[in-house]
Design brief:
With 172 residues, the protein is mostly helical. The chain is 59% helix and 7% strand. The chain has a 3-stranded antiparallel sheet with strand order 2-1-3, with no helix packed on it.
Length: 172
């Protein structure tokens, strides 16, 4: 039976017979996909100074990574790479949108990160970016006193680790 699902991380809806393996928007794992009536989605959270600083930094990381990936999608010399990096750009932009909501911002600036023609160089840079993001998000999750902020950081660690796996598979 078709149901309406909602991602507890980004808040976006999904229609399907069952919860998807990953959110189609932010790529959060299936455990965050709930039937709409059961989904607990809240972006109106109070941030202490440490969380506010970490969320602000996370927003900048996601803006930068989205800009890099969208650049690669246009510039890389590899057809599969174009598709992969376009998809990654959309996910990172969705992550930026989540942090924008948490910070209660009306808008965010677009990044202007540069990329390479060589798909291998882009994969290597992607791997570096995702490693840094994952490490930072683990640290930020550990420091957070806010359960919602901690939940988002933890979910994004899982997503960034999936992205690492994608680059590692292609760099072998």
């Amino acid at each position: 039976m078709v149901k309406l699902w909602r991602c507890e991380i980004c808040g976006d809806p999904y229609i399907g017979d069952g919860a998807p393996t990953n959110c189609q928007f932010c790529c959060a794992k299936q455990k965050y996909m709930k039937e709409i009536k059961e989904a607990d989605v809240n972006f109106d959270v109070e941030l202490n100074e440490k969380d506010k600083a970490n969320v602000g930094k996370a927003l900048q990381v996601e803006i930068s990574n989205a800009a890099f990936y969208f650049c690669v999608a246009k510039e890389t010399d590899d057809e599969e790479g174009q598709k992969l990096f376009k998809a990654l750009g959309k996910v990172e932009a969705e992550h930026a949108s989540v942090w924008k909501k948490i910070l209660k911002l009306d808008s965010i600036a677009e990044g202007n990160d540069k990329c390479h023609k060589s798909n291998k160089e882009n994969l290597e840079e992607s791997h570096t970016r995702e490693t840094k993001a994952s490490e930072f998000y683990k640290e930020a999750a550990g420091e957070s006193e806010n359960s919602r902020v901690k939940q988002i950081f933890e979910a994004f660690v899982e997503v960034e680790e999936d992205h690492l796996e994608l680059s590692e598979q292609r760099l072998e």
